[in-house]
Amino acid sequence: MRLTDYTHALDRVLELSVLLNEDMGDGLAAYGLTPSRAHLVWDLHHRGPRTQRELADAVGVSARNITGLVDALVATGFVTREPHPTDRRATLVTLTAQGTEATNSLVREREEFAHLLFATMPPERLEAFAGGLEDVLATLKQLKAAAQTR
Amino acid sequence: MRLTDYTHALDRVLELSVLLNEDMGDGLAAYGLTPSRAHLVWDLHHRGPRTQRELADAVGVSARNITGLVDALVATGFVTREPHPTDRRATLVTLTAQGTEATNSLVREREEFAHLLFATMPPERLEAFAGGLEDVLATLKQLKAAAQTR
DNA sequence: TATTGTTATACTCTATAACTATA
DNA sequence: TATAGTTATAGAGTATAACAATA
Lengths: 150, 150
Fold this sequence. Notes:
The structure is a homodimer of 150-residue chains. With 150 residues, chain A is mainly α. Helix content of chain A is 74%, strand content 8%. Chain A is built from six helices and three strands. Chain A has helices spanning 2-29, 35-47, 52-59, 63-75, 97-118, 123-149, and strands at residues 50-51, 79-83, 91-95. In chain A, strands 1-3-2 form a three-stranded antiparallel beta sheet. In chain A, strand 2 (79-83) and strand 3 form a beta hairpin. In chain A, helix 3 packs across helix 4. The longest helix of chain A is centred in the N-terminal third of the chain and has 28 residues, at 2-29. Chains A and B meet through helix 1, helix 5 and helix 6 of A and helix 1, helix 5 and helix 6 of B. The structure holds a DNA duplex (23 and 23 nucleotides).
């Protein structure tokens, strides 16, 4: 019966993943952000102004796509395109005040959400869950690395 | 420091979610399936031939979208459209042999993947992880239900 | 020559609205 | 009148390829 236990656990993780994604998506939509655009804004918030090339690499998406995402974020007031100080080919994508405020709110909301989600669990229970989570993540990354080599 | 613990746990869950989705997507792509199309095929596998209306409700997507997804699945040989025996407005979407084979392979792969992911964990560790997972899922569903009422 | 970002083109998933054929 | 599915239209995310300006 081990096999079905494992499969059941995986199904539960996937179910959680779906529910969380829905929740995140709804939260972002309330700010007028899509998941992809939020990903960009998030990167800018943590690392400061970046060229589109850098954003493409950070987000793992084509340069063409970054053009579109930045267009949309400029149109909705989250970022601006500034000239790069030394490289005239490049543009620096920079958060506006609105973009910074939105990100700060998102950070706060994420903390509140995490609190709602975990604060009712007994500490040892959370501890055990978090530990298992680290195990699973480590195993998964190992599997991915092995698959890459193959 | 509780707050950052909670946030850290949430971040880890989200990280796991992203990695698993990548993995699933890659696996499906190997069969020529996208996540949305696989969702349809999955439903057909578990519940048998269905009308497009039923599929739309099951998958939670517009009727228009089902037309497109079924078109694509017909074109790639996973399903066929059959006349409904009693309602001439409706069509019954039915898995082909290829569709059934693909689904059986996916079921097997999912089991193998779950085994790879969890079999290296000590049983008590997995037990604790699965227990915590149930807690989190229950809390999340409760939160969603409360948000719906509001 | 190589790189940055854009335009051109195309595919997938998603939605609403209008319309056809049937209940 | 209501329902099943299609066509029409639109927007978001994704990709590759060709091209301009600049390194």
